[in-house]
Predict the structure.
Amino acid sequence: MKASDLFVRALEAEGVEYVFALPGEENLDLLESLRHSDIQVILTRHEQAAGFMAATYGRLTGRPGVALSTLGPGATNLVTAAAYAQLGAMPMVLLTGQKPIRTSKQGAFQILDVVDMMAPITKYTHQVVSATYLPSRVRESFRLAREERPGATHLELPEDILQEETDGVPLQASQVRIPVAEERSVEAAIRLLHEAERPLLVTGSGANRTRACHRIGDFVDRFGIPFISTQMGKGVLDEGGELYVGTAALSSDDFVHRAVERADVILNVGHNVVEKPPFIMRKNGVRVIHVDFNSAEVDPVYFPQVEVVGDIAQAMDRIMGGLEPNPGWDFSHIPAIRQAAQDHFAHRAASDHFPMKSERLVADVRRVLPRKSVLTLDNGLYKIWFARNYPAYGQNSLLLDNALASMGAGFPSAMAARLVHPDRPIVAVCGDGGFMMNSQELETAVRLGLDLVVVVLRDDGYGMIRWKQEDMGFPDFGLSYGNPDFVAYAQAYGARGHRVESVDGFAPLLTQCLESPGVDLIELPITYEDDTRVLMQEIPELARNV
């Protein structure tokens, strides 16, 4: 068969459902082979969006998403998505085309060293130089993309190699089990927890695996230990109960940090230093137990005393089996911390100010969305408020990026979530800056017949950077821009556009959009005018008194 046909058969053997693609002429043999496959080609309007969708598919399913581009500018447009998946531990396989490598009539036209370009931001990158190697290279790419810690891999596919004739066959995936933690490390963790007076559980992004979520949930149910999460650890545990203390969305001086500071033993599950740690370790104070698939990467603020390295679900099961509840554990400080945070947020969320404030936005979205919904966020100042104050009731019900923290990912992530979860309400919340980076994908969403809502927060500027600018004492400069009429813009793509005219009009409109099929865009004016004062002055002052 032709090598491109073999390549597609290898993708099928890996269970690939979708290829998110913006093809070029170097991909046409592969595109023709995909035409005869059950794999669905999702044509996007920008390679970056294809990469974000593939990464989100990997994040939601645990199976590598696949993104396809041509060479040169197509490949460079995938760089941000590759870094997004690599830092965020999302399994993804990138495929890029290339000119013929045996003979070329176009010299160096569009040719970059894409393999070397991808090396620092992927787990594996390789140019396929013979059809003979296709099956093994595909298998290796998918194996490494999925292996803990997951991330991005890359294959470069020269045009002439895909046109070769071959009698190769796909390689089947082998059965792999993650090694279990060494017994003495488990015993050391049990001993520390038993000796603790005020233990605290922290969930990070690495804990966001289905089996691990179940075991961690069993652990919390059995021992009643309070927990907090990092931003990307949200949803590992149900945050609707009384044991949830909060999310470390700020680096310090938030209500949640009072619980961290009073803990003497922290059971830190699935943490990676790509996310800022929610605590500064004290050399003579807190003792930290690191539970993860990989050993801890030590830095000045993270140097755990005990490491339980291996399958997280197994590790938590074994810790749970050897630990007895300690009647000396003291959680009496937790209710006051929770109540202070809730009271402050409730007061701010009751604001009838228009343009809307972030706290009211978060409260209204949580009130409207059912438990089984999926909310995706782009990157902006509002993300801090959602991380702090939006309870996630289930695994991957709130998708945000606190690793690369790239703008432009929120809307494509919602599109991928709709493909994975066709029976769940899907909402994207994006700032106007981030939305416009991939707003052309409105056409893709409409063409695919997706049901989703995108809320565009309009403040006509880069709000997060303005916040930092103000905090540093600089005047407002260089961060303002104009915007289109978002209602007309949505309608031009065949979507429905809506504009919120009052603070009380948002929640009913969001409800209406969720009940209507198709793509809805809601333009919502928002203000961050007092966020600097609240986040940097008011909250730290109130938290110090808890």
Observations:
- The chain has a mean pLDDT of 95.
- The first helix runs from residue 3 to 13.
- DSSP finds 22 helices and 19 strands in the chain.
- The CA atoms of residues 144 and 501 lie 49 Å apart.
